[in-house]
Design goal:
By secondary structure, the chain is α+β, with helices and mostly antiparallel strands. The chain folds into 2 domains: 162 residues, YacF-like; 70 residues, YacF-like domains (YacF-like). It is built from 9 helices and 7 strands, in the order βαααααααααββββββ. It is globular. The protein starts with a strand and ends with a strand. 17% of the residues are buried.
Length: 249
């Protein structure tokens, strides 16, 4: 436990910010899709937030562009001596499958947008306590149905996001693997990068240090300020030399 480390991730462009938020919501949905009447809203909050992101952005087109860009980069490595061409070809084949699926699916989340049950819950989620049984008797009745019945409906709701789940997970896996952690140190709790272009920062810190990073900047230049977990925002933060690991992806 003494060697335990925590990884913080920070997006450096708007699209990466969206991909990380979608990944976060996907994990919340997967974790909370088995529920009872006391914790059901954890699932529906995440599901409706995911639907909100999909409605407000052209997710499919943006994701296709990013995955195609990643595919082109990987393709250039095929002619480099010493590269594992078998592994690289397998990655490219998987990207081609994902691109084909993204191009062929209907509009993301369309079946949820027109679902009367989901729509009734979405309207009430913005109201504190708005999903009580007297507000949503339909929801209350649905929660009393068997687990098998609910599982079938949940699977149907999530079906339109299955390709999105696959594409986001695989794309972010490739992005994360593109950067290697380097051991760095900084003084006065502050680090500034030497103009290295990145999409995603991954910062790894020993958990026993009790520090978390505050990142500001963009893909061309950024700065990291390390803050103690138990520090008061209004109090003076003790300056120190901080050792951490950083991966630019």
């Amino acid at each position: 436990m003494d060697n335990a480390k925590v990884i913080f991730e920070h997006p450096l462009n708007e699209k990466m910010r969206t991909w990380l938020r979608i990944e976060f919501l996907i994990k919340q949905i997967e974790c909370n899709k088995k529920f009872d009447c006391n914790n059901a809203l954890l699932f529906f909050h995440s599901l409706c937030e995911l639907l909100e992101i999909v409605e407000r952005n052209d997710i499919r087109s943006d994701l296709i562009k990013d995955i195609d860009e990643q595919k082109q980069k990987l393709s250039t490595w095929l002619n480099i001596s010493g590269v594992d061409t078998e592994l690289l070809s397998a990655l490219l084949d998987k990207l081609n499958v994902i691109l084909s699926q993204l191009n062929s699916i209907p509009k993301l989340g369309q079946n949820l947008k027109t679902d009367r049950f989901i729509a009734s819950i979405r309207k009430r989620l913005t109201i504190p306590g708005g999903c009580c049984s007297f507000d949503l008797p339909l929801f209350h009745l649905w929660l009393q149905q068997s687990q098998d019945y609910r599982d079938q409906q949940i699977a149907k709701w999530l079906e339109s996001f299955s390709t999105l789940y696959l594409a986001i997970s695989f794309y972010l896996q490739l992005i994360r693997q593109s950067g290697r952690f380097k051991l760095l140190s900084c003084s006065n709790n502050f680090y500034q990068n030497p103009s290295e272009i990145s999409r995603l920062l991954r910062i790894r810190i020993p958990i026993d240090k009790g520090l978390y990073p505050q990142v500001s900047g963009n893909a061309n230049r950024y700065a990291i300020r390390f803050v103690k977990l138990d520090s008061d925002s209004d109090s003076k933060i003790e300056t120190q030399c901080v050792e951490f690991e950083l991966a630019n992806c």
